[in-house]
């Protein structure tokens, strides 16, 4: 039995080694393979994407497709080809149409040591429409010995490129709903994203020249090295001292405790019973997070404790299940509401169905639950005609403050749109990343390209949330704007939450 065990283990480790090394990021695909994948990519977007020409004219998209095809004259690595596809996808102006690496590439980088990378994480935003200069502030630095570029340092240029020129270039590769830039700024500000996209577009350099302004307003320049995790880890290990005694053993968490920790990171209710104020952190509307039970228990608790002011934080909520976002809205809405004025797909079958994830089930969904109308589209009439009634039991009637930002997306936009006009609800923060007028979403299968196996998301339905909202390509606008400042980033303060708390304070004072 022992011999059999060791043979099995050897075979398993060998298989893992083969799988690990079967992908090479330096592998190049000849133009013929790239062009085949590109044809599938373009054809599927043109045939199935219901919002392809929503914010970009057909003439413009035809030009972009043609330009992308012209880039495929030489061999490319997966990363290089993915860059071309991402540039095209961003031109659709649909936040759900994004390009991802192949599964082989993802597995490779999940198990491989990270390569050299841009060492800074940053917060980026635009001071306003009247300003031509975007603001970039350091939030983290992987080079721990760097005594200059600490949190709060303002960057004005990298390698002689002004910040606004850098952001304009990187924006060309970020998908968003309509003409929304808040989502693009937030994507660059999410930890690690800026460095990853900067390296992809501009390449990795051995050093970076950083122009900055310090806390006293004095300009300066410094040169920092690229972050090399292999060398840096080696150096850190070499300088560590040996422990004279083992560290105290931490209690092992049960499966239930681990699950609870995971769920609390997604949804959590915090109550201040003295001040009768509560805050609901809600990072996702996705299924399998026990949200139905969480909402039921939360609103029961709010009633029992007579909570008069509730903050709902959806700044990190990228969406998920519409049934979950609708359920939360029911607990807060004071009148019947709709989530869609129109919802339709443009096609059922596909020439390239073998490359589309779950195509049979998506096709069956469209066949059974939609109806082809005079416009030639397949309408999901249930949601086009459905009004949802507010909850009667444990309905919340107090003051509500919804915190929004560039990561508030998809189903979160449905939630925000349904409540924005309500008198006891105040939107606080920044414009949502999701489009206020609507989006292309609902069923969003992955498409795997046949040669490179790069994946991209293909929304099948076009959703108009509220046809009375101006179709200007913007997100849901807050009633009380709370925008970042250099000082707030430097202090690592939660400026949006601070604004909501100040509004609650004023409301309570006005009632006395």
Question: How would you describe the overall organization of this protein?
Answer:
The protein is an alpha+beta fold and 512 residues long. Helices cover 38% and strands 18% of the residues. The chain has 17 helices and 22 strands. Strands 4, 5, 6, 7, 8 and 9 form a six-stranded antiparallel sheet that branches. Strands 10-11-12-16-17-22 form a six-stranded mixed sheet, sandwiched between helices. Helix 3 runs antiparallel to helix 4. It is globular. The chain starts with a helix and ends with a helix.
For this entry, give a set of tags.
512 residues; 22 strands; 17 helices; alpha+beta; 6-stranded mixed sheet; 38% helix; 6-stranded antiparallel sheet
Instruction: Please work out how many helical segments DSSP would assign.
Output: 17
**Average pLDDT number:** 89
Content-based structural category: alpha+beta
Q: How helix-rich are the residues, as a percent range?
A: 25-40%
Main sheet makeup: 6 strands, antiparallel
Q: Which percent band covers the strand fraction? A: 15-25%
Shape: globular
Q: In total, how many beta strands?
A: 22
Question: In summary, what is this structure?
Answer:
This protein is of the alpha+beta class and 512 residues long.
């Amino acid at each position: 039995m022992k011999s059999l065990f060791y043979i099995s283990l050897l075979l398993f480790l060998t298989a893992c080694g083969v799988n690990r090394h079967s992908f090479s990021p330096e592998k190049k695909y000849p133009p013929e393979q790239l062009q085949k994948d590109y044809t599938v990519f373009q054809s599927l977007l043109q045939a199935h994407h219901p919002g392809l020409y929503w914010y970009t004219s057909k003439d413009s998209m035809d030009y972009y497709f043609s330009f992308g095809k012209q880039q495929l004259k030489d061999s490319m690595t997966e990363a290089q080809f993915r860059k071309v596809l991402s540039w095209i996808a961003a031109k659709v102006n649909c936040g759900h149409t994004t390009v991802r690496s192949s599964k082989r590439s993802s597995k490779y980088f999940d198990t491989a040591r990270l390569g050299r990378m841009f060492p800074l994480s940053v917060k980026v935003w635009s001071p306003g429409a009247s300003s031509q200069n975007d603001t970039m502030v350091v939030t983290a630095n992987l080079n721990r010995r760097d005594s200059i570029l600490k949190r709060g340092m303002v960057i004005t240029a990298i390698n002689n490129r002004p910040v606004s020129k850098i952001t304009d270039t990187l924006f060309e590769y970020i998908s968003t709903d309509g003409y929304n830039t808040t989502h693009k700024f937030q994507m660059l500000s999410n930890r690690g994203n800026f460095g990853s996209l900067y390296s992809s577009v501009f390449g990795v350099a051995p050093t970076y020249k950083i122009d900055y302004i310090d806390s006293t307003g004095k300009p300066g320049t410094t040169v920092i090295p690229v972050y090399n995790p292999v060398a840096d880890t080696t150096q850190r290990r070499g300088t560590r001292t040996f422990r004279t005694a083992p560290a105290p053993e931490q209690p092992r968490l049960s499966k239930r405790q681990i699950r609870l920790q995971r769920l609390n990171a997604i949804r959590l209710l915090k109550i201040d019973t003295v001040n009768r104020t509560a805050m609901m952190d809600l990072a996702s509307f996705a299924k399998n997070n026990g949200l139905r039970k969480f909402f039921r228990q939360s609103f029961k608790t709010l009633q029992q404790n007579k909570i008069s002011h509730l903050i709902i934080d959806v700044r990190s909520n990228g969406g998920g299940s519409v049934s979950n976002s609708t359920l939360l809205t029911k607990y807060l809405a004071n009148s019947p509401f709709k989530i869609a004025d129109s919802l339709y797909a443009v096609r059922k079958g596909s020439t390239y169905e073998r490359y589309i994830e779950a195509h049979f089930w998506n096709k069956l969904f469209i066949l059974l639950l939609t109806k082809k109308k005079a416009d030639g589209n397949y309408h999901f009439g249930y949601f086009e005609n459905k009004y949802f009634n507010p909850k009667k039991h444990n309905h919340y009637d107090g003051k509500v403050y919804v915190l929004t930002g560039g990561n508030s997306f998809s189903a979160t936009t449905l939630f925000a749109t349904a409540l924005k006009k309500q008198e006891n609800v105040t939107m606080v923060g920044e414009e949502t990343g999701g489009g206020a007028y609507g989006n292309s979403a609902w069923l969003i299968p992955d498409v795997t390209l046949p040669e490179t196996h790069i994946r991209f998301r293909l929304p099948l339905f076009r959703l108009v949330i509220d046809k009375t909202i101006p179709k200007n390509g913007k997100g849901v606008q807050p009633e009380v704007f709370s925008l970042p400042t250099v000082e707030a980033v430097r202090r690592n303060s939660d400026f949006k939450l601070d604004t909501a708390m100040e509004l609650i304070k004023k409301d309570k004072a006005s009632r006395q």
